[in-house]
Write a structure and sequence with these properties.
The protein is α/β, with parallel strands linked by helices. It has 3 domains: 2-10 and 190-275, 4-hydroxy-3-methylbut-2-enyl diphosphate reductase, catalytic domain (Cobalt-precorrin-4 Transmethylase, domain 1); 13-94, 3-Layer(aba) Sandwich (Rossmann fold); 96-188, 3-Layer(aba) Sandwich (Cobalt-precorrin-4 Transmethylase, domain 1), CATH 3.40.1010.20. 39% of the residues lie in helices and 19% in strands. The chain has helices at residues 13-28, 42-50, 76-85, 95-109, 123-129, 163-174, 189-202, 217-229, 263-275, and strands at residues 2-5, 32-35, 53-56, 66-69, 88-91, 113-117, 136-138, 152-157, 180-183, 207-211, 233-236, 252-257. Strand 2, helix 2 and strand 3 form a beta-alpha-beta unit. Helix 7 (189-202) runs parallel beside helix 8. The longest helix is centred in the first third of the chain and has 16 residues, at 13-28. The structure holds iron/sulfur cluster (SF4). Iron/sulfur cluster (SF4) is lined by residues 12-15, 71, 94, 96-97, 159-160, 188, 190-191, 218, 259. The site of iron/sulfur cluster has 15 residues, from helix 1, helix 4 and helix 7.
Length: 279
């Protein structure tokens, strides 16, 4: 089967930094924790767990050793608690996520009601909320009722949202009764490049594969965008998740991957796909 890989796909600099930082600490120390899964990719989490990285979901689970803050960041209250406990903290928060945290805090200091366009259950968004007293998170138009009327809004966006969704939400907010809207674009350029190159590719192929963690926000966003253009789009964790029957009758396949998908998952998938023959 002919396979075309998206020009931009796979690990972003934020994820690369978190992983290489974890690998480095694991060679130096015995007791290393990650606050939440280091990235939303089971294969990578399992590999690092074998190397000794322990994942905890609550700061109270850590009493000693070193805690790695993943690229999604952590809330100030969590950082303060870790400092109180006297554990060693290694902060691998992506610089673009740090920027959102900083902007949200500044908006609030300047008297704006902070609005985050994104998923309230996503760790990046939860950490950003933690930099404010009472930010409002809105996922889509159905959440607009959460915004207080006549307020001065300071708006940011989860880094991995699509520009289309960000723009649509700003338009929808603009239709409401607010005194002021101050917007800072906090979308991640790396995520946008992956989205653009995936959408271009999926229009040219018979079947499109989006590789990466099923709970990874940026990978899910890629899959949603591709599905809008090509109904034969499949979001898979890796080659083992493929139902070969979906390949029957297809000649050209496209492959992309989220920012948290390692190169070896992509390479293995492409190699197997190229070798596939309908029997
Ligand atoms: S997707 Fe963008 S914001 Fe998120 S970790 Fe990667 S570079 Fe940072």
């Amino acid at each position: 089967m002919e396979v075309i890989v998206a020009e931009k796909c796979g690990f972003c600099h934020g994820v690369k930094n978190a992983i290489s930082t974890a690998e480095k600490i694991l060679t130096q120390e015995d007791e290393v924790y990650s606050l939440g899964p280091i990235i939303h990719n089971k294969d990578v989490v399992e590999r690092l767990a074998k190397a000794g990285l322990k994942t905890v979901n609550d700061v109270e689970e850590v009493q000693s050793g070193t805690v790695l803050i993943r690229s999604h960041g952590a809330a100030p209250v969590q950082m303060a608690r870790l400092k109180e406990k006297g554990v060693n903290i290694v902060d691998a928060t992506c610089i673009l996520v740090k920027r959102v945290q900083h902007i949200a805090g500044e908006f609030e200091k300047d008297g704006y009601k902070v609005v985050i366009i994104g998923d309230e259950n996503h760790p990046e968004v939860q950490a950003v909320v933690g930099f404010t007293k009472d930010a409002v998170v809105i996922a889509d138009e159905s959440d607009l009722h959460k915004l207080p009327e006549n307020a001065k809004l300071g708006i940011v966006c989860q880094t991995t949202e699509s520009p289309d969704h960000f723009g649509r939400m700003l338009g929808a907010i603009g239709g409401g009764r607010f005194r002021e809207m101050k917007v800072i674009n906090t979308l991640c350029v790396e995520a946008i490049k992956r989205q653009q190159s995936a959408v271009e590719l999926c229009k040219e192929v018979d079947i499109m594969f989006v590789l990466g963690g099923l709970e990874s926000a940026n990978t899910r966003r890629l899959a949603d965008l591709c599905k809008e253009e090509n109904s034969e789009t499949y979001h898979l964790q890796n080659w083992n998740g493929l139902d070969k029957r979906t390949l029957f009758g297809k000649k050209i396949a496209g492959v992309t991957a989220g920012a948290s998908t390692p190169e070896w998952i992509i390479a293995e998938f492409v190699e197997n796909l190229e070798a596939f023959e309908e029997s």
